[in-house]
Amino acid sequence: VDSDRVEATLVVKNPCTFPIEFYSLEFDEQYLEEEKILRMAAGTKYQKTFWMPPRAVGGTLPPEVLQDYEAQKKLKAQQAELKAMSEARARAEAEAKAKALAMGKAAPAFQKTTAFYPEPMVKLIGNPITLAVKHHLGIDTSSAARKAQQRRGIVVIVHGAPRAGKSEVAVALCYHYEATYLSIDVVVKEAIANH
Question: Could you list the pLDDT tens digit for every one of the 195 residues in the chain?
Fold first, then answer.
């Protein structure tokens, strides 16, 4: 800003076997849209940082997150439509009362109506980020699969003083034994949010 134009050549070499991707957070429209989608999906249930499944270069967000975003958009549109209908009905009743009073007649007796709110046409799928991670890990989330998986196993709890390396040990154990890593903070917050 406020300086002469400077040009430079940047050479990037990829020694890895997988492709790499460059993007600018300020100018990438896809990134900005995905950030908005993730903020809606995560809401206040998660900390500022949370786990997401990795994706290929140029890939999109997990389908669970995208489906939840579309469902939430449709649900908000339905709620806005119902609110507009209710407000229009209230305005019509108020106008009819005002017109009757202006003509010197008694205000018409309106029946007390109960607002009709049809069941939402859209079904939200639950916590999309948790579902995406479970899908990535190969965990079947259907109720039949949950019942089938109710088996006994070993639970390892790693605890200790702050900054003692508990997370690193837990991650190493999970990697070695191909186990699932659970943070007690995330589990408690999710349990509170779901009940």
Answer: 567 788 888 888 899 888 887 777 777 888 888 888 888 777 655 566 677 788 777 788 888 888 888 888 888 888 888 888 888 888 888 887 878 777 776 655 554 444 444 444 444 456 777 788 887 777 776 666 656 656 556 788 888 888 888 888 888 888 887 787 777 777 788 888 887
Closest CA to 121 of 167, 79, 179: 79
Q: How far apart are CA 110 and CA 1, in angstroms?
A: 66
DSSP letter for 163, please: T
Residues in the chain: 195
Radius of gyration of the chain from Cα atoms?
Answer: 27
Q: In 51-148, which ranges are continuous DSSP H helix?
A: 63-102, 128-137, 143-148
Angle at 142 between CA 121 and CA 68, to 5 degrees: 40
d(CA 183, CA 133): 14
> Does the pTM of the predicted model rise above 0.90?
no
Q: Which residues contact 124 (CB under 8 A, 6 or more apart)?
A: 68, 71, 72, 75
Q: How many angstroms separate the Cα of 58 from the Cα of each of 30, 33, 66?
A: 10, 14, 16
Question: Residue 183, SS3?
Answer: coil
